[in-house]
Structures are given as structure tokens and as C-alpha cells.
Amino acid sequence: MGQYYKVIILAEKSGKKEFIRLSLNPSNYNNGVKLMEHSYIDNNFVSVVEDIISSNGMFYKSRIVWAGDYADNEPDSDKNLNKMVRAESFFPNVSENKYTYILNHTKKQYVDKSKINIIHPLPLLTAEGNGRGGGDYRGLNENLVGTWARDVISADNELPTEYAELICKFTEN
Fold first, then answer.
1. What is the structure's pLDDT at 173?
2. How many CB atoms lie within 10 A of CB 68?
């Protein structure tokens, strides 16, 4: 079976419990819900996510996770983030904005998208549950998948000088 993903924007962590600020479903943007059905450069759904976490967006520098429905359950819960979400009621518009960098403010790292050909790094770096279903990423640098999940992330065209570049060229399966 295939694993289905939703994008979850989390509130700042307070104790053990996570609070969901926003969830987005790729199917609302005419995309497949499996990770590799929408994880590519210039995809309209990933562009929406970039825009809402940019300095122009309402969730600038937010904690983000691409939550799979096969991911581990949350602590003290019988559900994972994907299954905790009710129906989405907020549908940001697709933007024409383009961002050069994906910034991880937690780890002080960045990815330069101008060096990426096809596979967009944001969904893969923030994915939880990868490798547990059809349509997940399996390929070069698979060990990096999920390493940015729940970190504070933004999209930008300016680069902080103290951040280190993360080279994460993902390949098509």
C-alpha cells in the first residue's frame, strides 16, 4: 500500500504535546498524496508550502513536518500527526514566488535549490514515516530523509552568513 502525506505546521513546542497550527493536503492542489508524487521542483503544492513559510507568509520560520500516515504515533497517543488532523479549512493560493534557499533555523543549515535538478529537498528532509509505504523515497541520500522534521524552517532568497550548506542531491528511483 502507499503511504499518504500531509504537511503539518506545528506551534512552538511546549512540553510533550504538539499543537497543530495548520495542515495542508496535496490532493487539494490536484497532486498525488504519496511523497514522490509531489516532491519535485516547481510543484504547485510545494510552492504553496514554500510561500507560507517565507518572510511574506503567515507561517514564517515555522516548525514543519511532512507527516505520513504510517509514521510513528505521537507520545501518549494512539495516533500520529497525519491521523490527528481533521479536514483542512485553509487553502492558500498557489504563488508565483520563487525562493532560492530552504533554511533550517534549528540546525543553522540551508539547501541551495539552484543546485537541484528535479527532486525538491523540502518534503524529503521534513518527512516522517518514509520507507514504510509505496511512493516513498528510496535512493541516494536516503539517510537524510526526515532529518529536518519538526525543525524551524523557512524559504528565502537571502542567506544568513553563519549557516552551513547541506548538500542533499536526491535521485529519481
1. 60
2. 28
Bridge partners, 18 (sequence order): none
Query: Quick one: 90 exposed, middle or buried, by C-beta within 10 A (0-12, 13-18, 19+)?
Result: exposed
- Alpha-carbon gap, residue 35 to 67, rounded angstroms: 10
- Strand pairing report for 109-112 and 164-165: parallel
d(CA 173, CA 156): 28
CA distance 41 to 102: 12
> Domain ranges in the chain?
5-85+93-165
H or E stretch including 9? strand 5-10
C-alpha cell at 2: 502507499
Determine how many CB atoms are found less than 10 A away from the CB of residue 76: 7
Q: Mean pLDDT lowest for which of 15-29, 42-56, 64-78, 124-138?
A: 15-29
Q: What is the pTM of this model?
A: 0.94
Name the average pLDDT for the chain.
92
Contact 116/169 with Cβ under 8 angstroms?
A: yes
> What is the pairing mode between strands 20-24 and 5-10?
antiparallel
37-60 confidence digits (pLDDT tens) = 999 999 999 999 999 999 999 999
Question: Which amino acid, 69?
Answer: D
